[in-house]
């Protein structure tokens, strides 16, 4: 029944063209060449000429090779047997395990009806203050990590995977260095999470077309696990390689490029993948964390730019730290109102002051005389970077908030921080307490009885579980402008 | 019924090429037959015996020689009572109803009636036998939630129809015949509660267009005071991602002082629409006390839904807006985002292999954007009432660069520009509408003299800030330093607004004028401080008081006492005018 053709009319890039009848758009064919068999997908039909992109590439394909149409779209076996397994972009095992055949599911699944979505309200705790406090990760969120080559984005991804609470972890890699693939495997195996993980691996050495399949395959599987009630975390690295693979096909197909050679539908293509992040009512959820490397550290490059418009924020990994300015979690408002009443204000207040600190640094670099306010900002910024921003810090949210207040108290007077008075009353570290005295409960609302006491400008030691703020008296040299 | 059919000869993405025999109209709707399903498509180019059609669905599974049935009709929406409170996709399929029948996913080729044809509406006729009626004239009334919904003569019917019969007051469905009228040729036409209207054709059933002058209060200080929008006007909000476009739109959709709000979520994240969808039924409209959903229609074609339907969704939204305008209501259409709509055009243009314009957008981008915004307006209706459609569109410029085609084309045709800045959003200064780059051609609720004072301070403050980054704080005069602090104060307590605080999120026009007067007094005060630190300290504590003031309920005890506090502080520093009694 399946039609077989033995004349390839055109070979161009990874695309072959065959004159064929009755072929449906999107169906798979098997191309047999002397190098072996490969799957190919129909990507265009025009007046009887069918264009297919060949998964394994077109090297050594002969004009008289066999093309057999299957009448089926790309599918993958889905069952719990996937867990603990590693596959390539076509769904073939890479771990010497058995090939799975049963319960095939299509990898291009329809869109979730927005009316069936509901407003996400569950926070995912990661223990990283720059995420939990400032850019809270939420179940069903799609959040990219914007970074540049050389930054520890894969390490961050692996750490979040291990520390976040998820039933199933799905890792899809695109154009990953083989060493990095081994790193992930090692980390997840060592963390004892392999039995709840599935890998779809495309490394830099693999055929380009398989790279295009990885996000779809990973997300189709994730969606099924979610429908079965599981909390699924999908990790994708690196989406820029995926976009580049799309660009390659688009150029081969002579499509009009829109921006730096990328096809005009880059946004829609990326969106259709990211929008798979969902919290199913009465079932599980899919949360997506994806690495997007920015060529030339340029956030206006089409890939990070389009991604930023699609995703619900981004973590901007820069200089080995999550940058508080570039980073954003759009969903944080949905959960940070239920964490602790000071969460939002502390979050905004700290960032505002940190912005001031950055300005002061510029001033300092230019050799201007620093005012006493600048000095305070310097103290603050220094503490902030050490106690909250460093990627090595591991603090639960509540302790991170307390730490924030302590940094404020160690750096400023209570009228200077621009926070709401009622919160300052409640949370400003009690200055009547001597350094060694114990503070009963970190998250309880503090008594306002000592509110008249002025906070000493600089405290040498702030003794508190979770966060030790030690301040050295500033010994910065300041240069007057006229010197 | 279906006579005109064609055969598919090519498939490329969501564009199909179809060979046809009969007559085909440009923009006519056709259906590609895929097994049991019929996929809606629209003719976008005719070329000899071939037409190119954009399919409003995923095209996977279609094959060569599959049949396409032409409908001989343009893409239309159904207009009638029951639109309010609905959540539609770009083709006016009710999403909650689809969810009931199909579960989590949107199955392709599933189309439902936009309005409930079973439901009976109590109808009161407004005309009687023998009356002459024209298109847009009122046949009678139906109470739709909080509104008196006028049942109108379809806008494309003949003029001078003579009413032959009209039903008595009673309950009728949308399809029941309400009246029979005779046209000039002597043919009888049936009039029902609902009718269809092609989305790409503006409704022009009014006497004349009027100049929009009255402000549309949004409750956002920086908009109403500095960059106001008039009822019937247009505005655009370009901004890089993360600058807060969507929050500004959401807040506006909640608090804008209009009758009906149409939210067109066009190619944006599903999550954001869901928030609106789930929150609105719970929120109360401060004006009517009823649920906000009763005045809202959501058109939701999110980024992962088919791209051609995204192109249509904006037209669907504006057509529904025009329909309610015809009843003498003030309608606000919020389109988020027009860039996604423009990109949908770009995708189709690319598939058609048209010669690309700037950034590969089609050459007709500008005229399409202009035509869309021109559907806004304040109109004098035939019955003497006025109605308005105000359009606010967000723009998502690539790389946050306002020089790109969609922003530039929008700026040419809008009356106000609310440019969001990354610099401000990074510093968490929300709403991040840039006070120096934005503009509005409409009249503010604040008189221009006072506005001038504050604008000067913002401008000077910015200059001084820039100067200080070069010469340092010590390099500017104490007087300039105070101006800088004044501009910072104005920014933190007036331009910035906490949209998540129940009180601060909405600032009424009355409150804006009141607070602004106090602020102007502060800003006009010359001040004399011993040194910079004293100045900074004073402004810091004044800022604290003013922020608390913003958070206090209008005219509450806390509001009064904070105001007295502020005035006392000012009296120590200089004089401030007496508190109005």
Could you walk me through the main structural features you see in this protein, from its secondary elements to its overall organization?
The complex is a heterodimer of chains A (483) and B (581). Chain A has 483 residues and is an alpha+beta fold. Chain A has three domains: 4-73, Thrombin, subunit H; 76-336, 3-Layer(aba) Sandwich (Rossmann fold); 343-470, no CATH class. Chain A is built from twelve helices and 25 strands. Chain A has helices spanning 129-132, 153-163, 178-190, 208-227, 239-252, 266-274, 302-310, 332-336, 343-365, 372-389, 397-411, 421-427, and strands at residues 4-5, 10-12, 15-19, 28-33, 36-46, 49-54, 66-69, 75-77, 86-88, 104-106, 123-124, 137-138, 142-147, 168-176, 197-203, 231-237, 257-259, 262-263, 278-279, 285-293, 313-318, 321-322, 328-329, 461-462, 469-470. In chain A, the strands form six sheets. In chain A, strands 9, 13, 14, 15, 16, 19, 20, 21, 22 and 23 form a ten-stranded mixed beta sheet that branches. A seven-stranded antiparallel beta sheet of chain A has the order 1-7-4-5-6-3-2, with no helix packed on it. A two-stranded antiparallel ribbon of chain A has the order 8-10. In chain A, a hairpin with a 2-residue loop joins β5 and β6. In chain A, α4 crosses α5 (239-252) and α9 crosses α11. Chain A is elongated. The model of chain A is unreliable at 432-466 and 470-483 (pLDDT under 50). Chain B is an alpha+beta fold and 581 residues long. Chain B has four domains: 5-74, Thrombin, subunit H (Beta Barrel); 84-112 and 206-440, 3-Layer(aba) Sandwich (Rossmann fold); 121-193, OB fold (Dihydrolipoamide Acetyltransferase, E2P); 448-573, Bovine Mitochondrial F1-atpase, Atp Synthase Beta Chain, Chain D, domain 3 (Bovine Mitochondrial F1-ATPase, ATP Synthase Beta Chain, Chain D, domain3). Chain B has 14 helices and 26 strands. Chain B has helices spanning 95-102, 221-226, 245-255, 270-279, 307-325, 338-351, 365-373, 405-413, 422-426, 448-471, 478-495, 509-524, 532-551, 557-573; strands spanning 5-12, 15-20, 28-34, 37-47, 50-55, 67-74, 76-79, 87-88, 121-125, 132-133, 138-144, 147-152, 161-166, 170-172, 179-182, 188-191, 195-198, 208-210, 234-238, 260-266, 296-301, 330-336, 377-380, 386-395, 416-417, 439-440. In chain B, the strands form five sheets. In chain B, strands 8, 18, 19, 20, 21, 22, 23, 24, 25 and 26 form a ten-stranded mixed beta sheet that branches. In chain B, strands 1-2-5-4-3-6 form a six-stranded antiparallel barrel. In chain B, a hairpin with a 2-residue loop joins β3 (28-34) and β4. The longest helix of chain B is centred in the C-terminal third of the chain and has 24 residues, at 448-471. The mean pLDDT of chain B is 92. The interface between A and B is large, with 86 and 87 residues. β5 (36-46) of chain A pairs antiparallel with β1 of chain B, so a sheet runs across the interface.
């Amino acid at each position: 029944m399946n039609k077989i053709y033995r004349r390839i009319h055109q070979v161009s890039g990874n695309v072959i063209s065959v004159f064929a009848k009755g072929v449906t758009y999107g169906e798979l064919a098997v191309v047999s060449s002397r190098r072996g068999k490969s799957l190919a997908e129909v990507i265009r039909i025009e007046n009887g000429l069918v264009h297919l992109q060949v998964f394994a590439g077109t090297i050594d394909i002969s004009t008289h090779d066999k093309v057999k149409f299957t009448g089926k779209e790309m599918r993958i076996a889905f069952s719990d047997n996937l867990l603990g397994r590693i596959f390539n972009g076509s769904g073939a095992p890479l771990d010497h395990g058995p090939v799975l055949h049963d319960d095939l599911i299509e990898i291009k699944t329809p869109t979730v009806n927005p009316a069936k979505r509901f407003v996400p309200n569950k926070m995912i705790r990661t223990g990283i203050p720059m995420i939990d406090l400032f850019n809270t990760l939420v179940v069903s969120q799609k959040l990219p990590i914007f970074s540049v080559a050389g930054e520890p984005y894969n390490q961050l991804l692996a750490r979040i995977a291990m520390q976040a609470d998820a039933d199933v972890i799905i890792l899809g890699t695109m154009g990953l260095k083989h060493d990095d693939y081994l790193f992930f495997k090692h980390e997840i195996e060592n963390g004892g999470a392999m039995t709840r993980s599935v890998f779809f691996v495309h490394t830099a050495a693999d055929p380009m077309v398989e790279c295009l399949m990885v996000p779809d395959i990973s997300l189709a599987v994730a969606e099924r696990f979610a429908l079965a009630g599981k909390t699924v975390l999908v990790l994708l690295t690196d989406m820029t390689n995926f976009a580049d693979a799309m660009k390659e096909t688009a150029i081969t197909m002579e499509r009009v490029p829109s921006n730096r050679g990328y096809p005009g539908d880059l946004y829609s293509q990326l969106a259709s993948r990211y929008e798979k992040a969902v919290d199913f009512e009465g079932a599980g959820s899919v949360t997506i964390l994806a690495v997007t490397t920015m060529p030339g550290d340029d956030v206006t490059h089409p890939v990070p730019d389009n991604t930023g418009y699609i995703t619900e924020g981004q973590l901007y990994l820069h200089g080995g730290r999550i940058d508080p300015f570039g980073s954003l979690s759009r969903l944080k408002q949905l959960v940070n109102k239920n964490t602790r009443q000071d969460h939002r204000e502390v979050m905004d207040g700290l960032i505002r002051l940190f912005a001031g600190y950055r300005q002061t640094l510029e001033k300092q670099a230019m050799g201007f005389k620093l005012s006493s306010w600048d000095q305070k900002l310097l103290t603050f910024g220094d503490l902030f970077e050490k106690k909250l921003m460093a990627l090595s810090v591991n603090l639960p949210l509540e302790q991170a908030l307390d730490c924030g207040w302590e940094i404020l108290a160690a750096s400023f007077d209570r009228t200077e921080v621009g926070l709401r008075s009622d919160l300052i009353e409640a949370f400003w570290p009690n200055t009547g307490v001597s350094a060694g005295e114990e503070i009963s409960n970190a998250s309880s609302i503090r008594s306002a009885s000592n509110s008249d006491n002025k906070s000493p400008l600089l405290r040498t030691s702030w003794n508190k579980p979770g966060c030790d703020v030690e301040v050295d008296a500033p010994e910065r040299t300041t240069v007057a402008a006229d010197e | 019924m279906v006579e005109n059919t064609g055969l598919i000869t090519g498939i490329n993405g969501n564009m199909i090429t179809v060979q046809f025999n009969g007559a085909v109209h440009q923009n006519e709707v056709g259906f590609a037959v895929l097994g049991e399903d019929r996929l809606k498509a629209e003719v976008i180019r005719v070329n000899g015996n071939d037409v190119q059609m954009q399919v409003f669905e995923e095209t996977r599974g279609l094959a060569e020689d599959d049949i396409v049935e032409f409908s001989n009709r343009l893409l239309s929406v159904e207009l009638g009572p029951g639109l309010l409170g609905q959540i539609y996709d770009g083709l006016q399929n009710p999403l909650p109803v689809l969810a009931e029948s199909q579960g989590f996913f949107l199955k392709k080729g599933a189309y439902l009636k936009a309005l409930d044809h079973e439901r009976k509406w109590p109808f009161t006729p407004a005309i009687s036998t023998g009356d002459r009626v024209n298109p847009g004239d009122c046949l009678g009334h139906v109470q739709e939630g909080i509104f008196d919904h006028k049942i109108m003569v379809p806008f494309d019917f003949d003029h001078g129809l003579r009413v032959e019969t009209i039903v008595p007051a009673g309950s009728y469905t949308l399809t029941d015949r309400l009246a029979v009228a005779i046209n000039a040729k002597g043919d009888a036409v049936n009039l029902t509660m609902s009718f269809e209207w092609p989305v790409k054709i503006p409704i022009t059933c009014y006497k004349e267009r009027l100049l929009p002058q009255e402000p549309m209060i949004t409750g956002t200080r920086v908009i109403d005071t500095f960059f106001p929008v008039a009822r019937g006007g247009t505005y655009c909000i370009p901004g890089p991602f993360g600058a807060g476009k969507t929050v500004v739109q959401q807040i506006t959709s909640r608090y804008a002082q209009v009758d009906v709000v149409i939210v067109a979520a066009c190619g944006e994240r599903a999550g954001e629409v869901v928030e609106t969808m789930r929150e609105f039924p719970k929120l109360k409209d401060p004006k009517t006390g009823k649920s906000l959903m009763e005045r809202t229609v959501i058109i939701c074609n999110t980024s992962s839904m088919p791209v051609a339907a995204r192109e249509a969704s904006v037209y669907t939204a504006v057509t529904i807006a025009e329909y309610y305008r015809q009843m003498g209501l003030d309608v606000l259409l919020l389109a988020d985002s027009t860039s996604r709509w423009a990109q949908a055009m770009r995708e189709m243009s690319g598939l058609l292999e048209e010669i690309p314009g700037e950034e590969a957008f089609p050459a007709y981008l500008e005229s399409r954007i202009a035509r869309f915004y021109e559907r806004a307006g304040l109109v004098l209706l035939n019955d003497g009432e006025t109605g308005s459609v105000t359009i606010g569109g967000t723009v998502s410029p690539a790389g946050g660069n306002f020089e790109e085609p969609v922003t530039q084309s929008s700026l040419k045709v809008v009356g106000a520009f609310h440019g969001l800045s990354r610099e401000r959003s990074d510093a968490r200064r929300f709403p991040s509408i840039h006070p120096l780059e934005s503009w509005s051609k409409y009249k503010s609720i604040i008189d221009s003299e006072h506005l001038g004072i504050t604008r000067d301070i913002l401008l000077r403050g910015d200059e001084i800030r820039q100067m200080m980054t070069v010469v340092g704080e010590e390099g500017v005069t104490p007087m300039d330093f105070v101006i800088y602090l004044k501009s910072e104060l104005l920014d933190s307590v007036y331009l910035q607004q906490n949209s998540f605080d129940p009180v601060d999120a909405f600032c009424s026009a009355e409150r804006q004028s009141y607070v602004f007067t106090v602020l102007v007094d502060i800003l006009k005060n010359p001040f004399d401080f011993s040194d910079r630190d004293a100045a900074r300290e004073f402004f810091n504590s004044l800022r604290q008081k003013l922020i608390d003031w913003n958070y206090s309920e209008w005219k509450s005890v806390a509001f009064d006492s904070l105001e007295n506090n502020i005035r006392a502080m000012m009296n120590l520093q200089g004089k401030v005018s007496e508190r109005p009694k």
